[in-house]
């Protein structure tokens, strides 16, 4: 999966968890909690959705590595390649 495809997958799952968000309005560096206002339960739901879609385990210590769409794409592509 390419970087762009991974970012799209992340944004799709993000907007399922937070349906009030619009994909086109989310910037690469928007922080999911600070800028997009997801709470901790939303983050857990996002992690579960990413696991279900991609089969990637994301330990709690790595949540900071998926804090923005750009960071998440890098992290998830790396996890798939490993």
TrEMBL record:
Chain ranges of the Carrier domain: 1-80
One Pfam family from the record: PP-binding
Protein name per UniProt: Acyl carrier protein
* InterPro entries per UniProt: ACP-like_sf, PP-bd_ACP
Source organism of the structure: Tropicimonas sediminicola
Taxonomically, which superkingdom?
A: Bacteria
């Amino acid at each position: 999966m390419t970087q762009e495809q991974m970012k799209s997958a992340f944004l799709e799952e993000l907007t399922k968890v937070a349906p009030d968000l619009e994909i086109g309005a989310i910037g690469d560096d928007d922080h999911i909690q600070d800028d997009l206002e997801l709470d901790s339960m939303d983050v857990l739901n996002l992690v579960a959705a990413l696991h279900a879609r991609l089969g990637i385990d994301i330990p709690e210590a790595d949540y900071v590595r998926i804090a923005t769409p750009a960071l998440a794409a890098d992290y998830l592509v790396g996890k798939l390649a490993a």
